[in-house]
Amino acid sequence: MADPETMVLVNPTSGKGRGARAATAALPVLEAAGHRVRLLMGSDAADAEARLRAAVRPGCRAVIAVGGDGLVHTALQVVAGTGVPLGIIPAGTGNDIARSAGLPRRDPVAAARVVAAGHTRTLDLARSGERWFATVLAAGFDAIVNERANAMRWPRGQMRYNIATVAELRTFRALPYQLELDGRRVATEAMLVAVGNGPSFGGGLQICAGAQLDDGLLDVVLIKPMSRTELVRTYPKLFKGTHVSHPLYERHLVRQVTVAAPGIVGYADGERIAALPLTVRAVPGALEVFA
Asked: Is residue 150 predicted with pLDDT exceeding 90?
């Protein structure tokens, strides 16, 4: 029998065409390492997931995602809990999943060599309903910004989120939350609630600074009510994780959390999940990743 195939899922349009260029650079490295490659592309996320699921079902050697966090998120829905190792060739705007796993983010050949070396690391994932995610569930101001940005047709890339952030800041107020933290109920107000399996979202914003991908726990972070001026002043600190010293920052380590707030749609790995309330649980050891 022939060796099992390696499924390479590509988003050719991610990162303004970086996905296609990254795949072109990575494939010779994978093939030289003995991978029998089959390329897969979908017309959208649902189609890509369906194609990958059908290809993986008979058995495969590995799945390689060439694209941004959205494409990796799609691949997670298929490989989580199966033992099939996932390789990541980052080619998106944020690449927070690769960042959290310590993978090369700007060199597709280097990322392909990580896969070719064959070493894997076991990581946790988070799960909400039937959806898996690797980084952060946004459930506050950040989620509202995502909603606005997704409704905008212009501009593209990071600038769209910057404009959406400024637009939402003009009217945003703290939200009433109902949380259940490992069974303990908490009613509070907050600007933002984030549930982290990993530390960062939004292209390196370390909202859940200190979160570990293999500790079996979720980091639940709250930013308590503050003025818009203070929120703007605090925002740059997220890139270094120094916001953790702010008196209105709060962190809880849990195995399961339920987050409820009116009018909020949760986003995980940058992808729209569902309206709150959402229950998220940590699933230890759910992912094998080339690292």
From this structure: no
